[in-house]
Amino acid sequence: MAYNKKILIIEDDPDISMIEEAYLQASGFETKILADGMDAAQIAEEEQFDLVLLDLMLPGKSGYQICREIRDKLDIPILMVTARTESVDKVRGLGLGADDYISKPFDPAELVTRVNANLRQYQRMVEKFANKGPDASEEIQVQDLRIRAGWDRNIRKCCKFGWNRTYTDKKGPQYPGLA
User: Fold this and answer.
1) 62 in Cβ contact with 84 (< 8 Å)
2) At what angle do helices 87-95 and 63-73 cross, to 10 degrees?
3) Backbone angles phi, psi at 91, to 5 degrees
4) What pLDDT is recorded for position 160?
5) Which of 86, 46, 87, 92 is nearest to 70 (CA)?
6) In this structure, which long-range contacts are made by residues 20-29, counting pairs with CB atoms below 8 Å and at least 24 apart in sequence?
7) By Cβ atoms counted within 10 A, which residue in 11, 27, 57, 103 is the most buried?
Protein backbone atom coordinates (compact mmCIF):
# COMPACT_ATOMS: atom_id res chain seq x y z
CA MET A 1 0.00 0.00 0.00
CA ALA A 2 2.63 2.53 1.03
CA TYR A 3 5.01 2.11 -1.88
CA ASN A 4 5.07 5.13 -4.21
CA LYS A 5 2.79 7.12 -1.88
CA LYS A 6 4.08 10.61 -1.14
CA ILE A 7 3.47 12.27 2.22
CA LEU A 8 3.98 15.98 2.86
CA ILE A 9 4.95 16.69 6.48
CA ILE A 10 4.35 20.30 7.54
CA GLU A 11 5.94 20.53 10.99
CA ASP A 12 8.22 23.19 12.50
CA ASP A 13 9.67 21.02 15.28
CA PRO A 14 12.63 19.15 13.74
CA ASP A 15 12.55 16.39 16.36
CA ILE A 16 8.91 15.58 15.62
CA SER A 17 9.27 15.85 11.85
CA MET A 18 12.28 13.50 11.95
CA ILE A 19 10.28 10.91 13.93
CA GLU A 20 7.35 11.19 11.53
CA GLU A 21 9.65 10.91 8.53
CA ALA A 22 11.62 7.94 9.92
CA TYR A 23 8.52 5.87 10.69
CA LEU A 24 6.81 6.74 7.40
CA GLN A 25 9.91 5.97 5.34
CA ALA A 26 10.39 2.69 7.22
CA SER A 27 6.83 1.85 6.15
CA GLY A 28 7.63 2.52 2.49
CA PHE A 29 6.41 6.10 2.07
CA GLU A 30 8.24 8.90 0.30
CA THR A 31 8.29 12.05 2.43
CA LYS A 32 9.04 15.74 2.22
CA ILE A 33 9.27 18.07 5.23
CA LEU A 34 8.31 21.74 5.29
CA ALA A 35 9.20 23.69 8.44
CA ASP A 36 6.61 26.38 7.73
CA GLY A 37 3.46 26.56 5.69
CA MET A 38 4.07 29.65 3.60
CA ASP A 39 4.09 27.73 0.29
CA ALA A 40 2.54 24.48 1.50
CA ALA A 41 -0.59 24.51 -0.67
CA GLN A 42 1.38 25.34 -3.79
CA ILE A 43 3.98 22.64 -3.08
CA ALA A 44 1.29 20.08 -2.25
CA GLU A 45 -0.37 20.75 -5.61
CA GLU A 46 2.79 20.93 -7.73
CA GLU A 47 4.44 17.82 -6.31
CA GLN A 48 1.23 15.74 -6.18
CA PHE A 49 1.33 14.40 -2.64
CA ASP A 50 -1.05 11.62 -1.62
CA LEU A 51 -1.54 12.83 1.97
CA VAL A 52 -0.58 15.76 4.21
CA LEU A 53 0.45 15.67 7.88
CA LEU A 54 -0.19 19.17 9.20
CA ASP A 55 0.79 20.83 12.48
CA LEU A 56 -1.47 23.68 13.60
CA MET A 57 1.04 25.98 15.28
CA LEU A 58 3.50 26.99 12.57
CA PRO A 59 5.56 30.13 11.96
CA GLY A 60 4.20 32.51 9.37
CA LYS A 61 0.82 30.89 8.71
CA SER A 62 -1.55 28.86 10.87
CA GLY A 63 -2.30 25.23 10.18
CA TYR A 64 -5.98 26.13 9.91
CA GLN A 65 -5.25 28.53 7.06
CA ILE A 66 -3.00 25.98 5.35
CA CYS A 67 -5.69 23.31 5.68
CA ARG A 68 -8.24 25.56 3.97
CA GLU A 69 -5.79 26.46 1.17
CA ILE A 70 -4.93 22.83 0.49
CA ARG A 71 -8.57 21.75 0.67
CA ASP A 72 -9.57 24.48 -1.81
CA LYS A 73 -7.05 23.10 -4.33
CA LEU A 74 -6.83 19.38 -3.62
CA ASP A 75 -8.95 16.46 -2.55
CA ILE A 76 -6.37 14.43 -0.63
CA PRO A 77 -6.37 13.27 3.00
CA ILE A 78 -5.17 15.86 5.54
CA LEU A 79 -4.21 14.65 9.02
CA MET A 80 -3.64 17.28 11.68
CA VAL A 81 -0.89 16.33 14.13
CA THR A 82 -0.82 18.91 16.89
CA ALA A 83 -0.37 19.68 20.56
CA ARG A 84 -3.71 21.52 20.57
CA THR A 85 -6.01 19.01 22.24
CA GLU A 86 -9.12 21.03 23.08
CA SER A 87 -12.37 19.88 21.48
CA VAL A 88 -12.84 23.31 19.88
CA ASP A 89 -9.51 22.89 18.03
CA LYS A 90 -10.47 19.43 16.79
CA VAL A 91 -13.92 20.58 15.68
CA ARG A 92 -12.46 23.59 13.87
CA GLY A 93 -9.75 21.53 12.14
CA LEU A 94 -12.13 18.81 11.01
CA GLY A 95 -14.65 21.46 9.98
CA LEU A 96 -12.08 23.16 7.74
CA GLY A 97 -11.47 19.92 5.87
CA ALA A 98 -9.02 17.81 7.84
CA ASP A 99 -9.77 14.08 7.63
CA ASP A 100 -8.23 13.05 10.95
CA TYR A 101 -6.73 14.64 14.07
CA ILE A 102 -3.85 13.20 16.08
CA SER A 103 -2.82 14.76 19.38
CA LYS A 104 0.81 15.16 20.46
CA PRO A 105 2.49 13.33 21.99
CA PHE A 106 1.58 10.47 19.69
CA ASP A 107 2.63 6.87 19.16
CA PRO A 108 4.50 6.78 15.81
CA ALA A 109 3.03 3.35 15.06
CA GLU A 110 -0.47 4.82 15.48
CA LEU A 111 0.47 7.68 13.16
CA VAL A 112 1.52 5.23 10.42
CA THR A 113 -1.65 3.19 11.00
CA ARG A 114 -3.85 6.28 10.66
CA VAL A 115 -1.99 7.35 7.51
CA ASN A 116 -2.61 3.91 6.00
CA ALA A 117 -6.28 3.93 7.08
CA ASN A 118 -6.90 7.36 5.56
CA LEU A 119 -5.19 6.37 2.32
CA ARG A 120 -7.30 3.18 2.14
CA GLN A 121 -10.49 5.18 2.73
CA TYR A 122 -9.50 7.68 0.04
CA GLN A 123 -8.67 4.85 -2.38
CA ARG A 124 -12.10 3.26 -1.78
CA MET A 125 -13.74 6.58 -2.62
CA VAL A 126 -11.71 6.92 -5.82
CA GLU A 127 -12.57 3.37 -6.87
CA LYS A 128 -16.24 3.86 -6.04
CA PHE A 129 -16.52 6.83 -8.36
CA ALA A 130 -14.24 5.31 -11.01
CA ASN A 131 -16.52 2.25 -11.21
CA LYS A 132 -19.58 4.47 -11.68
CA GLY A 133 -18.14 6.31 -14.67
CA PRO A 134 -17.51 9.97 -15.46
CA ASP A 135 -21.08 11.07 -14.73
CA ALA A 136 -21.13 9.60 -11.22
CA SER A 137 -22.20 11.85 -8.41
CA GLU A 138 -23.14 11.64 -4.75
CA GLU A 139 -25.72 13.62 -2.89
CA ILE A 140 -25.59 14.80 0.70
CA GLN A 141 -28.65 16.23 2.41
CA VAL A 142 -28.78 17.98 5.77
CA GLN A 143 -32.27 19.20 6.66
CA ASP A 144 -33.28 21.52 3.80
CA LEU A 145 -29.83 21.75 2.16
CA ARG A 146 -28.94 19.25 -0.55
CA ILE A 147 -25.44 19.17 -2.10
CA ARG A 148 -24.60 17.05 -5.12
CA ALA A 149 -20.93 16.60 -6.04
CA GLY A 150 -19.55 14.85 -9.11
CA TRP A 151 -16.38 12.78 -9.23
CA ASP A 152 -14.21 15.53 -10.65
CA ARG A 153 -15.53 17.82 -7.87
CA ASN A 154 -15.51 20.70 -10.36
CA ILE A 155 -19.29 20.79 -10.65
CA ARG A 156 -21.45 21.11 -7.57
CA LYS A 157 -25.17 21.62 -7.49
CA CYS A 158 -26.83 23.00 -4.39
CA CYS A 159 -30.53 23.07 -3.72
CA LYS A 160 -32.25 24.81 -0.83
CA PHE A 161 -35.99 25.41 -0.61
CA GLY A 162 -36.35 24.68 -4.31
CA TRP A 163 -33.53 27.06 -5.23
CA ASN A 164 -31.01 25.47 -7.62
CA ARG A 165 -27.58 26.74 -8.55
CA THR A 166 -24.66 24.98 -10.23
CA TYR A 167 -21.13 25.99 -9.27
CA THR A 168 -18.14 25.21 -11.45
CA ASP A 169 -15.43 26.67 -9.23
CA LYS A 170 -13.66 24.73 -6.47
CA LYS A 171 -15.22 26.73 -3.65
CA GLY A 172 -18.88 26.46 -4.57
CA PRO A 173 -21.33 28.33 -2.36
CA GLN A 174 -20.17 29.93 0.84
CA TYR A 175 -22.42 29.30 3.85
CA PRO A 176 -21.61 31.25 7.03
CA GLY A 177 -21.00 28.93 9.94
CA LEU A 178 -20.23 25.89 7.77
CA ALA A 179 -16.74 26.91 6.73
Assistant:
1) no
2) 20
3) -60, -45
4) 42
5) 46
6) 20/53, 20/81, 20/108, 20/111, 22/108, 23/108, 23/109, 23/111, 23/112, 24/111, 24/112, 24/115, 27/2, 27/112, 27/115, 27/116, 28/1, 28/2, 28/3, 29/2, 29/5, 29/115
7) 11
pLDDT at 157 > cutoff 60 = no
The CB density around residue 72, as the number of other CB atoms within 10 Å, is 12
From residue 143, how far is each of 75, 96, 97, 159 by CA, in Å?
Answer: 25, 21, 21, 11
Task: Report d(CA 174, CA 168) in Å as an integer.
Answer: 13
pTM of the model: 0.73
Q: Apex CA 176: angle with CA 174 and CA 179, to 5°? A: 70
Residue 31's beta-bridge partner residues?
Answer: 7
Rounded Cα distance between 35 and 55, Å, is 10
Whether residue 164 has pLDDT greater than 50: no
DSSP track, 43-90: HHHHTT-SEEEE-SS-SSS-HHHHHHHHHHH--S-EEEEES--SHHHH
Distance CA(178)–CA(95), nearest Å, equals: 7
Residue 128 scores a pLDDT above 90:
no
